[in-house]
Amino acid sequence: MIKRGSYNGPGTMLSLFGVSDGFNKAACGKRCYNAVVKQAKQRSAPVQTGKKRVLWHSDGPSDDVSSLSVLIDWITSGDNYDRYRGGDGQMGETKTGLVSQILRLIFVIGIKTVRTAKDVIAKISSLETFRTAVDWLAATDQGVEDESSLCANILQRCPEY
């Protein structure tokens, strides 16, 4: 019979795993030990509610400055959008590198909301669906008689329209 705590003293297998004296579960090996420790950490860890969603157009220090305004300014400046899309003038730049520029601008402007590269790429993609809807509308606005089907088609192309 093993007494509680007697199997994790100096010179035992658990001491080889780097276990402190507070471990009081039986483990047959390193894999079992890691599984037990992981379960214990998950039980004791506070439940995370996830990050709070902050809208792109209302996260700035003032009403006229936001993450969205910084992003749109960057996209419409020079050939930035062509560089992002990988046009002919691309000079080995990656989307990740260009998105890092946008994230730096957002930070420098004084916006405290943390945005990730994934967030910026998703927002640019969302803006591109808006452009697709506008292009489709411009091509089909003559001869459209059913307003509801027109709205449905636009919303299908861009839910944010």
Describe what this molecule looks like in 3D.
- It is a single chain.
- This protein is mainly alpha-helical.
- The protein folds into two domains: 1-49, no CATH class; 56-157, no CATH class.
- Helix content is 53%, strand content 0%.
- It has helices spanning 13-16, 30-44, 67-76, 80-85, 95-109, 117-140, 147-157.
- Helix 3 (67-76) packs across helix 5 (95-109) and helix 6 runs antiparallel to helix 7 (147-157).
- 11% of the residues are buried.
Structure characteristics:
single chain; disordered N terminus; mainly alpha; 7 helices; 161 residues
The low-confidence parts are 1-6
Please tell me the total number of domains: 2
Give me the Rg, rounded. Answer: 27 Å
Helix content estimate: 40-55%
Q: What structural category arises from helix and sheet content?
A: mainly alpha
Terminal Cα span: 71 Å
* Count of DSSP H/I helices: 7
Q: What form results from the Cα inertia axes?
A: elongated
> What value does the average pLDDT take?
79
- Biggest beta-sheet profile: none
Instruction: State which percent range the strand residues make up.
Output: under 5%
> Count of DSSP E strands?
0
H/E element string? HHHHHHH
